[in-house]
Recover the amino acids of this structure.
């Protein structure tokens, strides 16, 4: 029941645009708290505009619909591959940044943490999915 | 993977969109299956075979893949 309701909410064409607006509000609030009112406003505007574009294209483009409300098995597979590639790119960027920071005599601390979290998340996920069969 | 999806669909004068709706997938997915760029999952392959009244082996040719 709860699963069906959450799936129905995710399938709504308003779901992704509203997530974009919510993320924009959070970024705006955090930036405002940090004393960067204008930067926060720009972040909110960018995310709200992105949400609006998604909302407008959902009814017209099958690709956008596949990315948002109408995800079938092929789009789910594409999503999985794209997620894996983007994860690899982020980890590779963090690795390069860590190497550069370390070579410059800096601590490389945030990048090292990111790499550790990424590696650990991979191992835990691998073990979990192996256990799940 | 080579398959008979396009042949069976056109035999019934169906558009890709109609078949997609019947299978609960997107038109792009049907197109990708027909052109051999996407190998469907077992449930979708079974649903397609059942829909056209053939066996999965008749519909999909893994030897020519």
């Amino acid at each position: 029941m709860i699963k069906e309701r959450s799936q129905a909410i995710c399938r709504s064409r308003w779901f992704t645009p509203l997530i974009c607006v919510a993320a924009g509000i959070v970024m705006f609030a955090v930036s405002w708290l940090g004393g960067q009112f204008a930067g926060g406003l720009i972040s909110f505007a960018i995310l709200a505009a992105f949400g609006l574009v998604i909302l407008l294209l959902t009814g017209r483009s099958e690709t956008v619909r596949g990315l948002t409300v109408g995800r079938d098995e092929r789009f789910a597979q594409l999503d999985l591959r794209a997620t894996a590639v983007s994860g690899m790119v982020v980890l590779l960027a963090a690795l390069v940044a860590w190497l550069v920071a370390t070579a410059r005599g800096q601590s490389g601390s945030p990048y090292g943490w990111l790499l550790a979290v990424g590696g650990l998340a991979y191992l835990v996920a691998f073990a979990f999915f192996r256990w799940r069969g | 993977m080579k398959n008979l999806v396009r042949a069976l669909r056109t035999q019934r004068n169906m558009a890709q969109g109609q078949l997609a709706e019947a299978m609960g997938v997107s038109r792009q997915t049907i197109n990708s299956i027909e052109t051999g760029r996407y190998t469907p999952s077992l449930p979708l392959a079974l649903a397609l075979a059942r829909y056209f009244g053939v066996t999965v082996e008749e519909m999909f040719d893994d030897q020519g893949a």
